[in-house]
Amino acid sequence: MIAPDQVDQRRKAAGLNSMSENLKRFNMEWDVETYKRMLPQYESWMQNMRQID
Which of 8, 29, 33, 47 makes a 20 to 30 Å CA pair with 20? Predict the structure, then answer.
């Protein structure tokens, strides 16, 4: 994800609610620091998924 610290500002500019508000619908929580820490694992997983297809 590009600039995760600004995700809520970009969502607001697009007329969307915040990431936290959006994820509450699924009983999930948004923590940008956890996301940034986990990002290398997410990207590795996505790369592996693309190789499978």
Answer: 47
